[in-house]
User: What shape does this take?
Amino acid sequence: MKIYITTPIYYINAEPHIGHTYTTIAADVLARFYRMAGYDVFFLTGTDEHGQKIYEVAKTQNITTKEFVDRNSEIYKKLWDVLNISYTRFIRTTEPEHEETVRKVFTKLLEKGALYKGNYEGYYCIPCESYAIPEDENNPLCPDCNRTMSKISEPSYFFRMSKYAKQLERYIEENDFVKPDFRKNEVLNFIRAGLYDVSITRKNVEWGISSPTPENYTIYVWFDALINYLSGVGYIQNDILFSKYWPPDVQFIGKDIMRFHHIIWPCLLLALDLPLPKVIFAHGWWTSGKDKISKSKGNIVSPQKIIEEYGLDPLRYFLLREVPFGLDGEYSEEGFKKRYNSDLVNDLGNLVNRTLNLVETKMSGIIGNETPEITLANFAISVFEEYEKKMKAIAFSEALEEIWKLISFLNRFLDEKAPWREGCKNVAEIVNSTIYGIRAATIMLAPFIPNSSSKIWKMLGFDGDPGSKGFNLLNQNIPEGTKVNKREIIFPRKK
Ligand code: MSP
Assistant: This one.
């Protein structure tokens, strides 16, 4: 079975902040989960490198636009390596193959009569790269970002989006395309209010893909960008790859770009006669001081800074645990530290540490392979079943809550059985059962905190890596004579 997962491609005019890392980490967690579940995963991410905004920022830097995009795209790519993002392909919209596909799609749409020539009279928001209608023409502010828009009047090619409104409305009504569920009506109301045709070329923007038409236009940056999801899996250029992975199964976006993804994007696909994505999931925003975290607000939270202080996995864990996926979340250092100390240090770290201490001191460092205590084994399996459901429903914080139910169960189990007490007769049975539960938690945690899971795995003395084992390992006994390795504190307490 295949699964095709995407993130938005990021504008490279500014450095990545935790908002960008959020979407990418979420996609990575799902990709890792499905790999462990035995799926053939294609995971696409990349950078969005054309358009007026990028051109203007590049101009202020005393280097060519090409040098600017090369340098900044690399910053994203490097950060994704630091964040342990297991993408299959990193696409850049300035790659010649992508540019060629965009032009071919344009030609296809022209031939199908889905494009026509007209004149665009209206407003354009450069920071959002979007056409929008201001409330007040005397003070034309962008309805999304509240910055002043420019008035433009120019000949342009239009995409006949209005033609697909009914078909899209039906698809949305009948399928789980818009996620989370509470967003569905918002999208339907927008469509029912009537869809406009969209201008898809720009006359005076030189940093873009040239249109395959006699005029000297460039292609509108959002049209170019959306096509990355097609060119990234070989549309037009690699039929075998494309037919293997199309359509996308889960596309992650932030709620700021829903209109492009829940409306323009599927209409484009309908015009191309291509199957539509299964799910496009819009998550909420990380805010700071109640404002969306963004460069323009000057309230950036740097992922590198958090990683330096806490390490990578606490960041991955916090982002997906703190806020139900789909809702907004307020970021604070205090909140981060609290979550870290309570969940990772006290619950998980402490459980692993005291259990391994028992193996070392009471069992000569060797774990036995007897069948685990029955209530514990049943509990671990029931947690896994819930976890699997939550992961498939893209409910990350709930999936983590399930794992924490198991971790709490194990901590209570140890407290109640107290195998450290003088004269305890069944130390090995208690400790081996706990290890069995820790192993189950470690496997389920692997998509979220891959490095820490591997460390726990190695300390327990198991072979390989939990992320490359399938979930079916969960209900097998621990191999006989497993010898634990040297203990280390994975999550040191923060003051
Ligand atoms: N280039 C377009 C997307 C084109 S996709 C065909 C774009 N790029 S962006 O870099 O501005 O933002 C991309 C994504 O970053 C957002 O949709 C969202 O997923 C994420 N976030 C940016 N700021 C965010 C927060 N403060 N909080 C959560 N996610 C945010 O739009």
Summary: The mean pLDDT is 96. The chain is about 45% helix and 15% strand. The two ends are 46 Å apart (CA to CA).
